[in-house]
Amino acid sequence: MILHKRAVIANAKFIYKADQEQLMGKLKYFQYRDDKQTHLLQCGAGERSWIDRGLGDTYSDIAQTATALATVGLAKDVAARTLVIAPQMDFMAAIPEDDREAALAGLTEATIEHWFAQANLPTPEYSFIIHRGDVSESRVDGQDKDLQRGDSYYHSHVVLAATIPGLEQDREGYKVYSDEGRVPKTPGLNAVTLTGLHESARENMALIWERELGRERVQSLNQELEHLTQALEQKDIARAIPDKAMIENTTHDLRHLFGLKPERERNHEGSQHVPDHNERPNATDPNREPPALPGRDEIAF
């Protein structure tokens, strides 16, 4: 089954080796925060655990290992790559609550392994962590969202080494391109694509969600997401079209800016018609008798 393109978000970024403060800050954020407002205790029961796949299980270990496995010899060496994998909320809510973190962990691992396998590359060392953040009530542009939800927003943050085990060298770098069409035809180039990441996430999510929920339920969720997407797109289109009041207010403001009279005053002045000297009288005076037509004898041929 092919899931809707919005069934799961999968994005990738990177951090330069020189930006150690940024690397440490992100890792601490991943470990101790769900969002900008919620801060977890840095010790005790509230502390979040990393799932270690070769990079470490604390933010300090991950930073140290990533730096040791950073690229070498580039103009700006890369210390680590970061991913976010986030299933759409209705898909996530369909999984029983006690099983959601396990399902997302399985999706994260399967996505990364498949992403590099389809490019015929070994998987780099990585670690990831599960977040349950609150959903913002406003959009990026400041407007209220069309849908207000009370569910937690499940997503995983992944940190990958910027190099992979190599054939000719112990470690080799790899590059991330947007799609296959942008990958240079360079022999021996190690490359993965964002398109490949998205496809891996959707393919593996379909497998895991079918296993957990059954094929029929996943098909239903997919159809509901398509209907929701169409409805939200129509709202965005309607929101982008200015209404009559907005047009009138904008016109009024522009006239005021350029010292022009408002449209109403111009219309009122135009209603008091001053006849032109070449104008036929009856064209402006409906009560005036029309001139007599000339007789046949008066018509010159």
State the main characteristics:
301 residues; 8 helices; BirA Bifunctional Protein, domain 2; two-stranded antiparallel ribbon; alpha+beta; 9 strands
Brief rundown of the structure:
This protein is α+β, with helices and mostly antiparallel strands.
Could you give a short account of the major beta sheet? 5 strands, antiparallel
Number of strands: 9
Structural class: alpha+beta
Structural shape: globular
Structure overview:
The protein has 301 residues and is of the alpha+beta class. It has a domain at 8-135 and 148-213: 2-Layer Sandwich (BirA Bifunctional Protein, domain 2). It is built from 8 helices and 9 strands. The strands form 3 sheets. The protein has a 5-stranded antiparallel β-sheet with strand order 1-3-5-4-2, with helices on both faces. A two-stranded antiparallel ribbon has the order 6-7.
Set out the fold topology.
Layout: E1 8-16, H1 20-32, E2 51-53, H2 59-68, E3 78-87, H3 89-94, H4 100-117, E4 126-133, E5 153-161, E6 163-165, E7 171-173, E8 175-177, E9 191-193, H5 194-213, H6 215-240, H7 244-257, H8 263-271
Parallel strand pairs: 8-9
Antiparallel strand pairs: 1-3, 2-4, 3-5, 4-5, 6-7
Helix pairs in contact: 1-2, 4-5, 5-6
